[in-house]
Design goal:
Blueprint: H1 2-18, E1 25-34, E2 37-47, E3 52-58, E4 61-71, E5 76-83, E6 86-95, E7 98-105, E8 108-116
Antiparallel strand pairs: 1-2, 1-8, 2-3, 3-4, 4-5, 5-6, 6-7, 7-8
Length: about 120
């Protein structure tokens, strides 16, 4: 009976950890210190059949990511998008309700931070 109890506990823990939401959701983001000033808005990350998709809304425009990746084992997200004709690279580390990292273009990096909208 004790072995069954231990096995059941392990199964529940595995089930709960496999259902973790990952980065999917709606996030309030900010990019600070760019030559064009600070940017704030809403980032939406969704699961697709082949992986993930993301878009950023801010300044009255929607900017879709050309690619967006999430590595569950390292908790890292990365991707790229185009902003006003400039290719931008994005990289951040995911934690339950936070994304922290940077966006970069032309060899310059700027802090990126996001918190999950509730």
């Amino acid at each position: 009976m004790k072995k069954l109890s231990i096995l059941l506990t392990i199964c529940v823990v595995l089930l709960i950890s496999s259902c973790a939401p990952g980065p999917v959701g709606v996030w309030n983001y900010s990019v600070t210190g760019t030559p064009q000033g600070d940017f704030k808005g809403v980032m939406t990350i969704s699961k697709t059949e082949t992986g993930y998709a993301a878009k950023m809304d801010g300044l009255g425009a929607t900017i879709p990511f050309d690619k967006f990746n999430y590595n569950k084992s390292t908790k890292k997200t990365d991707g790229s998008f185009d902003f006003q004709g400039t290719p931008i690279d994005y990289a951040a580390t995911f934690s339950k309700d936070q994304l922290k990292g940077s966006v970069s273009a032309a060899g310059m990096d700027w802090p990126f931070a996001a918190t999950r909208k509730k």
